[in-house]
Amino acid sequence: MNITRVRLLTVPVSDQDAAKDFYTGKLGFGVVTDRAAGPIRWLEVAPEGAETNVVLADHLPGVPPGSVHGLILETSDLDGDCEKLRLAGVDVEGPQDLPWGRQATLTDPDGNGIVLAAR
């Protein structure tokens, strides 16, 4: 096998504009691609410097919005990011200390589960 990295992760959403606002405005991701590909809008976002991008897709038959759980995002300032998210109106649980490290949880507008984890 010659696999070297995960390039894309698809997150199913019901409203791409609302998802884009959340991932860019609340989580601080940047827009990598936002264009029409025939009848489909290809919307790709990522944290600055990330090797893996997130596709916010509203066109996945059989994959309902909100069905992703355990999307883990690493942060260098868990407490600070939790506070910023709360100030932006995001419901954040934690952070809490667990046997494998510190983390907090939240959901995007569709209920996709996100874990913020300290390194």
Structure description:
- The protein is α/β, with parallel strands linked by helices.
- Helix content is 18%, strand content 41%.
- It is built from two helices and eight strands.
- The protein has helices at 16-26, 78-87; strands at 8-12, 30-37, 40-46, 53-57, 71-75, 93-98, 101-107, 113-118.
- The strands form two sheets. It has a four-stranded mixed beta sheet, with helices on one face.
- It starts with 7 loop residues before the first strand and ends with a strand.
- The model has no long low-confidence stretch (mean pLDDT 96).
Shape: globular
Calculate the mean pLDDT score and round it: 96
Number of strands: 8
Q: Uncertain segments of ≥5 residues (pLDDT<50)? A: none
N→C terminal distance: 28 Å
List the secondary-structure elements in sequence, H or E: EHEEEEHEEE
- Beta percentage is 35-45%
By DSSP (H or I, 4+ residues per run), the number of helices equals 2
What percent of the residues sit in helical stretches (DSSP H or I)?
10-25%
Assembly type: single chain
Based on helices, strands and strand pairing, what is the structural class?
Answer: alpha/beta
Characterize the largest beta sheet: strand count, sense, and whether it forms a barrel. Answer: 4 strands, mixed
Strand order of the largest sheet: 1-4-3-2
**What would you report as the Rg, rounded to the nearest angstrom?**
15 Å
